[in-house]
TrEMBL record, chain A:
TM segment ranges: 61-82, 88-107
InterPro entries: DUF3137
The protein, known as: Galanin
Keyword annotations of the record: Membrane, Transmembrane, Transmembrane helix
Organism: Shewanella sairae
TrEMBL record, chain B:
UniProt keyword Membrane present: yes
Membrane topology of this protein: Single-pass membrane protein
A Pfam family recorded for this sequence: LemA
Taxonomic source organism: Shewanella sairae
SUPFAM superfamilies associated with the record: LemA-like
Protein name per the record: LemA protein
Main localization category: membrane
Domain of life according to the entry: Bacteria
Length: 340, 189
């Protein structure tokens, strides 16, 4: 089923497992077993809920369309009798405003279904990576800490999405989707511009540090000279020319910065940056390593509402994305006491 | 006349700024050197404990242990931080001590009892931590010295440096351990 067939009244039927689990050959057996034990028993209930929500949505859609059309025709007939300076504009704006509550009401069953999946299925999916893994759509990282880490660019509005927390190879991992925006004034209007979209990763560190060290994408000598974004931190010039070309390092402690950014760590960070399209920045702050990973795609997204509620897509997708994030810990070798 | 005065004034200001920059660089070098000394002191305090534990098991390494003890005494001796020659000798002793301690750590592998001794394990861990800090301090020092030496050796810095008695400082040279290159693609497949 797709949007068109849904709109034109195709029958909405419950569907069962499609056997489309995807994982690396080395883990596929364990992956399937976990799915069969923990997720599949819930699919039947959720498939019924999905079908019910789609049916409710379509019923509301037909009802809303009829009412909306009737109101639109009625308004159009009344319009000439109303003494308005710009009747057509008022009519069109009125139509848009009228559509909003209808849209909200007809989408409500699907919204509830999706919320239910995130509340009941996603935590189960994340338990696959460890019993201490938690998922929350509401929980968020402390924005004041992120701001104080001096990693965030200038922004006016911040919105968090999915939050995950757990332990991987003894390293505490927390990640949160983050979108930062700011207002930019154009000639006649003000636009909202995205300044960062991606994921913030917080990793515990085996190395003790008291200072504050930030590794950002290189900004050029002139910008560094004029900018006061890293007030209180000194520029750290490292010996690796390739690293220096790619990153600017600022720290409150020159020696500690070099203690954290060893030659091998710099190599690993460069390798990682190349793998993520050079969209990595990080900060060592309050005994944590904060990584800012830019990405246009949303993480942990759900399959289309028109697809059966088998959660095979979600499970495979989340597993792939989490493995990619765990690879950061592997590449940086944070699990080793001398890894940094 | 006014033009000459203006040029002279500008030259004077530039000379002064150059002088300020040189002194700043020299002070950064000294600060970095004191950072090394802090770590060397930590290491020197740690060495007697390691030797005490090692002596119990390492009968065949007595000459090495004696050598380390002597080097430790030399390394903790005072030196003139303003005199480049004295700094050079101080850093050479520190590096020699580093080499001997590395030799000792390798020898520990031949003594399974010592290797499994908890106190020794803890001492070695702390030692490695101090070594990591020392390596960082050395990198900061060498970076500061590189900047200072370049400024001192290039004209007109060389003239201002000789007038202000700012001298080149020796590098802290040490063998870097071989680093294994990392290919992130292996992890991100």
């Amino acid at each position: 089923m797709n949007l068109a067939t849904f709109l034109f009244g195709a029958p909405i039927k419950a569907a069962r497992s499609t056997n489309s689990l995807v994982a690396k050959p080395a883990e596929i057996e364990q992956f399937k077993l976990y799915y069969l034990q923990h997720l599949q028993p819930l699919t039947s209930k959720f498939e019924n809920a999905r079908v019910a929500s789609l049916k409710a949505c379509r019923q509301r859609l037909y009802l809303c369309s009829a009412i909306y059309l009737a109101l639109a025709v009625l308004a159009f007939m009344i319009l000439p009798y109303m003494r308005l300076s710009e009747p057509l504009l008022v009519y069109l704006v009125g139509l848009v405003i009228l559509a909003l509550p209808f849209g909200w009401w007809l989408y409500n069953p699907i919204k509830h279904y999706k919320k239910d999946v995130k509340l009941k299925i996603y935590p189960l999916i994340f338990k696959y990576f460890g019993q201490d893994f938690i998922f929350s759509a509401e929980h968020k990282m402390s924005l004041s800490v992120l701001k104080a880490s001096k990693l965030l660019p200038y922004y006016e509005d911040a919105s968090f999405a999915d939050y995950v927390q757990g332990t991987y190879k003894g390293i505490e991992v927390a990640l949160n989707e983050l979108h930062l925006t700011k207002q930019v004034k154009r000639d006649k209007s003000t636009d909202t511009v995205s300044v960062f979209k991606g994921v913030m990763i917080e990793l515990s560190s085996h190395k003790d540090f008291r200072g504050h060290t930030v590794v950002v994408k290189t900004r050029g000598g002139l910008v560094n000279f004029l900018s006061d974004s890293f007030k209180g931190l000194e520029r750290v010039k490292l010996e690796d020319p390739i690293f220096e070309k790619q990153f600017d390092v600022f720290s409150t402690d020159q020696i500690e910065a070099r203690y954290l950014l060893t030659v091998s760590f710099m190599e690993r960070l460069q390798a990682l940056s190349a793998s993520f399209g050079h969209k990595i920045q990080c900060a060592f702050y309050r005994n944590k390593l904060l990584i800012m990973l830019g990405s246009k795609e949303d993480r942990f997204e759900m399959a289309s509402i028109f697809k059966p509620a088998t959660f095979e897509y979600e499970f495979s997708q989340i597993n792939r994305e989490m493995k990619q994030l765990f690879a950061i810990v592997d590449v940086l070798q944070l699990e080793q006491s001398n890894g940094l | 006349m006014e033009g000459i005065l203006l040029v002279l004034g500008l030259a004077l200001i530039m000379g002064y700024l150059w002088y300020v920059s040189l002194i700043k660089k020299r002070n950064t070098g000294r600060e970095a050197l004191s950072g090394i000394d802090v770590q060397l002191k930590k290491r020197a305090n740690l060495v007697p404990n390691i030797l005490k534990i090692a002596q119990k098991y390492m009968d065949h390494e007595k000459s090495l242990l004696t050598e380390i003890t002597e080097l430790r005494a030399l390394a903790t001796k005072g030196y003139d931080a303003v005199d480049p020659e004295s700094v050079k000798n101080h850093l050479q002793v520190a590096e020699k001590m580093n080499q001997k301690m590395s030799q000792l750590m390798v020898s520990v592998e031949n003594y399974p009892e010592l290797k499994s001794d908890n106190t020794m394990l803890q001492a070695m861990q702390t030692y490695n931590e101090v070594e990591a800090q020392l390596a960082a301090a050395r990198r900061f020092y060498n970076s500061a010295v590189s900047e200072l030496n370049t400024a001192v050796e290039i004209f007109p810095g060389s003239i201002i440096a000789s007038m202000a008695s700012v001298k080149v400082m020796p590098f802290y040279e040490a063998d870097e351990a071989a680093k294994t290159p990392v290919d992130a693609a292996d992890f991100l497949k």
